[in-house]
What we know:
Blueprint: H1 8-14, H2 20-30, E1 37-41, H3 47-52, E2 58-63, H4 66-79, E3 84-87, H5 90-93, E4 100-105, H6 114-124, E5 125-138, H7 147-157, H8 170-174, E6 181-194, H9 195-203, H10 210-213, H11 217-228, E7 236-248
Parallel strand pairs: 1-2, 1-4, 2-3, 4-5
Antiparallel strand pairs: 5-7, 6-7
Amino acid sequence: MGRFASTAQFYGRYREPYPAEFFRAVAVRLGITGRERLVDAACGPGLLAIGFAPFVGSAVGVDPEPNMIAAAKVAAGEAGVRIEWLQGRMEDVGERLGSADLVTIGRALHWLPRERTLAVLDRLLCKNGWIAICGSLTAESSINRWAATFHEIRRAWSSDPHERRYRVRPNGWFAGSRFRKAGEIAVTYRHAVTVPDLIGRALSLSTTSPAVLGHRRRGFEKALREGLEPFAVGGVVREEIVARATIFR
């Protein structure tokens, strides 16, 4: 069982979403024509592959966790898009991928072995192709007054409260490679999110996954619920998120 086996049912539904405008903005900025081939590396439940699928000619999602691939297939069917899914680690299946005009990587740089993945990207990416490192995160905004409490409680129960692994920056990760930063694209989005949704989001994280929490899960959910309810109106809070793509080529 992989690190994310117990998070698959929560990840696609509860993580900070990528708004539709984000995918349109990236497609326009990169001049995507509808003929390109996209590879979504470490795709998880396929959020990026599914979002970009209407803008490209073909797409393939790659992930080592079978539960994530299963969740991605269901989500793609619900979205009505056709995507090829390949289970395996990017560094192990790279030779089977052919070539790509656009490679997307979501919240996964910190899980990818740098040297082996860069070698795959070097072979995989077509001349004049793009790499988009994407993320969607709760913004530092007065609207998100609840966020500090959410993270404080989550880290108190986390298997890695300092979260040093997650402090990987794209510029540093690509330093010394042939790929250079070509710009950033950011889209701000506001929506309503329920307290149970935020509990589901916490369970989607590897450090507070159901597998990690085990018998402590009920107490964790109770702590989050009690911490977040004072910020909610009718069980709902407002959230401002920033979806961002850092572009390399």
